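[Meeting: bench + compute handoff]

Bench side (C.D.) handed over the final construct sequence. Compute side (W.E.) agreed to return the predicted structure before the next meeting so the bench team could plan truncations. Sequence as handed over:
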Amino acid sequence: MVYVSNLMSGTVSVIDPEKRELEKNIRVGKYPVFSLGYPPDTKKILVTLHNYEKKEGGGRLLLIDP
């Protein structure tokens, strides 16, 4: 699977490259800037949320089971 961070919509798209199809969009929160597979468990992904608003505790690292 390929994971694409969609900065403005606050989602991560899960794409099957073999089928060339969108599997689903996952709402993760504001400003996801980076997404990748989580090596120890290939069924999970890591997503970084950028703190563009510069709020205390605004940036996050999420572990998601898509």
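W.E. noted at the follow-up: The longest strand covers residues 21-27. C.D. will use this when planning the next construct.
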